[in-house]
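Help: why these numbers?

___
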Amino acid sequence: MSYIQVTHFSILDVTRTQDTVGLGADDPDVFAYARKEDRVLMTFNCRDFRVLADAEPDHPGLLLVYQNKAHSDMRTAGIVSAVGNIWQTYANGVRGMILTLNDFQWQNTSPEQSRISPARG
């Protein structure tokens, strides 16, 4: 799991869970830390964190990455690219939003030209 914070210079500040709340921390503790530190949370644990975010809608943002053990699964470069696409699409931030990174995998096209709509969360 990673926390992503965007500064006013649009530089990503990524922090790993194991370096902040500790390896093996409970999901509610990770979510609480992200809220307290005002950090967007990116996770592969989509189901559990969606439940937490739905219960606490005042959060900095939640970025979900779905993996199905398929060829289409996102790798690091795709995740970084998708995060960049999110920041271009939501220039004012993602506070309170639940977004699926898989939906932001377009290249050399605008979101409107993509087969996948970035509005899904």
